[in-house]
Specification:
single chain; 147 residues; 26% strand
């Protein structure tokens, strides 16, 4: 198992995983748009992506988006995406990706990582708890659609 911070040279490995992740959430396949989206994130330095390999085969990724905490006056990261290909699940890749995200956040002085997941995604919730994440009992999350 290898987990490392990806860069634009890894797009060929990342794009199919990213598109599979989107499909997992009900989106239509679109490798071209997935490539453009990830390329933009790299070129604009708008996210940090970690890639997991099994014997050189890409099997998972996680993507962090930078943000800030006004109250803490410090950097935070939103762990927006975490995906492991079905054939690689249950083998520790997701946990290794979470560790890589945690270690990266600490290394750049961030004070928090945050994420959200579907209420019925119990498998992911169990993983997060086992990995030391704490469910927020203090704040409700809301969103407002702009499209």
């Amino acid at each position: 198992m290898t987990v490392f911070q990806a860069d634009i040279a890894d797009l060929g490995k990342l794009v199919p995983l990213f598109d599979a992740y989107r499909q997992f959430y009900g989106e239509q396949p679109d490798l071209e748009r997935a490539d453009t989206f990830l390329r933009d994130r790299f070129e604009r330095q708008q996210s940090v992506i970690f890639l997991a390999l099994s014997e050189e085969e890409p099997v998972g990724f996680t993507q962090l988006y930078p943000s800030f905490s006004s109250t803490r006056m410090a950097r935070v990261f939103i762990l927006n995406d975490l995906f492991v290909a079905p054939q690689a699940r249950g083998k520790g890749y997701a946990k290794s990706l979470l560790v890589a995200a945690r270690d990266y956040g600490r290394s750049v002085g961030a004070v928090r990582l945050s994420l959200s997941t579907a209420i019925d995604n119990h498998v992911a919730q169990d993983l997060y708890v086992r990995a030391g994440w704490i469910r927020d009992e203090q704040f409700q999350v809301y969103s407002f659609s702009l499209i």
